[in-house]
């Protein structure tokens, strides 16, 4: 009988040690990943940067667990799957004036809320177009939200309702695709997510794609707002 109890105690201790060993391994790995992101400078400085790094790692782990679990080179995966910024079709539409009200869906990922806020701030700082935040969706010309769609090869989209007679926007809905932007496999940094938000807001302003070093480059999200983008907006709204 004593031998049985000894074996049970040994098994309990072994399981307990294994559990805590696994716990500390995962905790240290998580802290290491957060540290690498933070000290790389990709998530910003100070406590806000730490918070972004933590959220990025959490989102990446969640995306990994919810999908096929295969890692691999982000750049290779992006090239293989043909991920683009969006599938925008040029229409020449715009607003009456270089300004629009905007509403951020409060239920979306916090990473997207911050990206949208930074993107709106960046466009407002150009002086070429002004977005004004409103408190309700009904007041908004532009609604900023998200999607989680693996069936499209786009990191974001801007869906517009346009008056066919005047070719003026009536409403625009911008969506960032968390399937790509928050997945470990595709390797989007916080800056590239912000660039994507700036790109889609560019469409919400009325800009089309180009193949220059521009936030509106069709092939990706590697550029923030450039001087040529500012001039394009001013030209678009020049009466």
From TrEMBL:
<dbReference type="InterPro" id="IPR024079">
    <property type="entry name" value="MetalloPept_cat_dom_sf"/>
</dbReference>
<dbReference type="InterPro" id="IPR001818">
    <property type="entry name" value="Pept_M10_metallopeptidase"/>
</dbReference>
<dbReference type="GO" id="GO:0031012">
    <property type="term" value="C:extracellular matrix"/>
</dbReference>
<keyword id="KW-0378">Hydrolase</keyword>
<keyword id="KW-0862">Zinc</keyword>
<dbReference type="GO" id="GO:0008270">
    <property type="term" value="F:zinc ion binding"/>
</dbReference>
<dbReference type="Pfam" id="PF00413">
    <property type="entry name" value="Peptidase_M10"/>
</dbReference>
<keyword id="KW-0482">Metalloprotease</keyword>
<protein>
    <submittedName>
        <fullName>Matrixin family metalloprotease</fullName>
    </submittedName>
</protein>
<feature type="compositionally biased region" description="Polar residues">
    <location>
        <begin position="72"/>
        <end position="88"/>
    </location>
</feature>
<keyword id="KW-0479">Metal-binding</keyword>
<keyword id="KW-0645">Protease</keyword>
<dbReference type="GO" id="GO:0004222">
    <property type="term" value="F:metalloendopeptidase activity"/>
</dbReference>
<feature type="domain" description="Peptidase M10 metallopeptidase">
    <location>
        <begin position="111"/>
        <end position="237"/>
    </location>
</feature>
<dbReference type="GO" id="GO:0006508">
    <property type="term" value="P:proteolysis"/>
</dbReference>
<feature type="region of interest" description="Disordered">
    <location>
        <begin position="68"/>
        <end position="93"/>
    </location>
</feature>
């Amino acid at each position: 009988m004593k031998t049985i109890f000894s074996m049970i105690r040994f098994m309990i201790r072994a399981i307990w040690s294994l559990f805590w060993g696994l716990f500390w391994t995962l905790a240290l790995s998580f802290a290491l990943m957060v540290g690498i992101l933070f000290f790389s400078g990709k998530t910003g400085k100070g406590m806000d940067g730490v918070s972004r790094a933590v959220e990025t790692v959490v989102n990446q782990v969640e995306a990994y667990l919810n999908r096929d679990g295969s890692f691999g080179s982000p750049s290779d995966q992006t090239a293989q799957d043909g991920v683009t910024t969006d599938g925008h079709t040029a229409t020449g539409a715009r607003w009456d004036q270089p300004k629009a009200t905007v509403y951020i869906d409060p239920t979306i990922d916090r990473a997207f809320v911050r990206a949208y806020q930074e993107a709106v701030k960046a466009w407002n700082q150009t002086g070429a177009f002004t977005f004004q935040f409103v408190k309700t969706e009904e007041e908004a010309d532009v609604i900023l939200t998200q999607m989680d769609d693996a069936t499209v090869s786009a990191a974001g989209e801007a869906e517009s309702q346009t008056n066919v007679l005047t070719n003026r926007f009536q409403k625009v809905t911008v969506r960032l695709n968390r399937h790509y932007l928050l997945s470990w496999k595709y390797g989007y940094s916080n800056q590239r997510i912000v660039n994507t938000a700036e790109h889609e807001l560019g469409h919400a302003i009325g800009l089309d794609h180009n193949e220059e070093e521009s936030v509106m480059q069709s092939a990706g999200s590697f550029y923030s707002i450039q001087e040529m983008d500012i001039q394009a907006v001013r030209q678009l709204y020049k009466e």
